[in-house]
Amino acid sequence: MFELRLREIYRYLGFRGTEPPADTVKRIQQCVDRMYAAMTLRTTHRKFPVSVKKPDTVEIAGLTIHSRNLCKNLDGCDQAYMFAATVGVGIDRLIKRGEIGGMIDALIYQAAGAEMIEAYADELNGALRRTEAKRGCRLRPRFSPGYGDVPLALQKDFSRILELPKTCGITLTDTLLMVPSKSVTAFIGCTKNFDTETEDAFLADVANPLDATGKSAAEASGTDTVSGERENKCRRCTKNDCQFRN
């Protein structure tokens, strides 16, 4: 069973570089315990051939996607997964219950729910990574619809291709939000081209989604061209909801 990273929950709640008060820590742990009891884990994935045509075209599963960010992420990949996971509607029920009883618990459930789906997806991706390693391949970091310049409308294609209502119980609202809310869909590239040694290095040097200005890889990653010391923008990013944060 995966474990939630408490420091990430604290960060979502606004405690950056500091420990919450003891009573808040206790309350967070109580909420997390309830969430473990309420979660219902479901996932699905399919692997497809992928064609990447620079600078901004990706073809996969009968789709033609125009996205510079996704093109960078999947460059060098001959296959890619379409992946989905959810921790279930029970977490949404806890959030609603918290809103009725007082917003503190609701905020904790929201923060811990965000970490829960990330931790679950990371565990699943770890299993896929080990499978692909046996055939000499590595996985690229997850890249989701709605992130960077990847169209959110692709959620409809994920739902259709992966049959999400049937396989995971995930449905879409009119505004393309997923229900259960603590769910994730993503492309995961599969490559034998090892441009970098780690995901962090790949994100900073090759496919940093924060860079939408056409800067060089060194500029995008925050390299100091005088000293040669890189300050990874991902590591300095203050976004709360970025799956690429360090």
Instruction: Give me the strand/helix succession.
Output: HHEEEHEHHEHHEEEHHH
Text of the CATH class = Alpha Beta
Strand order, largest beta sheet: 3-2-1-4-8-5
Radius of gyration (CA) equals: 19 Å
Assign an overall shape.
globular
Structural category is alpha+beta
At CATH level 2, the architecture is 3-Layer(aba) Sandwich
Give the amount of beta strand, in percent: 15-25%
Organism: Anaeroglobus geminatus F0357
Pfam families: Met_synt_B12
Domain AdoMet activation: 78-190
GO molecular function, one term: methionine synthase activity
In short:
The chain is α+β, with helices and mostly antiparallel strands.
3D architecture notes:
This protein has 246 residues and is of the alpha+beta class. It has one domain (6-206): NADH Oxidase (3-Layer(aba) Sandwich). It contains ten helices and eight strands. The strands form two sheets. Strands 3-2-1-4-8-5 form a six-stranded antiparallel sheet. Strands 6-7 form a two-stranded antiparallel sheet. A hairpin with a 3-residue loop joins strand 1 and strand 2 (57-60). The longest helix is centred in the middle third of the chain and has 31 residues, at 103-133. The chain is globular, with a radius of gyration of 19 Å. The relative contact order is 0.15. GO terms for molecular function: methionine synthase activity.
Name the descriptors.
single chain; 246 residues; alpha+beta; NADH Oxidase; six-stranded antiparallel sheet; two-stranded antiparallel ribbon; 41% helix; globular; disordered C terminus; methionine synthase activity; Vitamin B12 dependent methionine synthase, activation domain protein; VitB12-dep_Met_synth_activ_sf
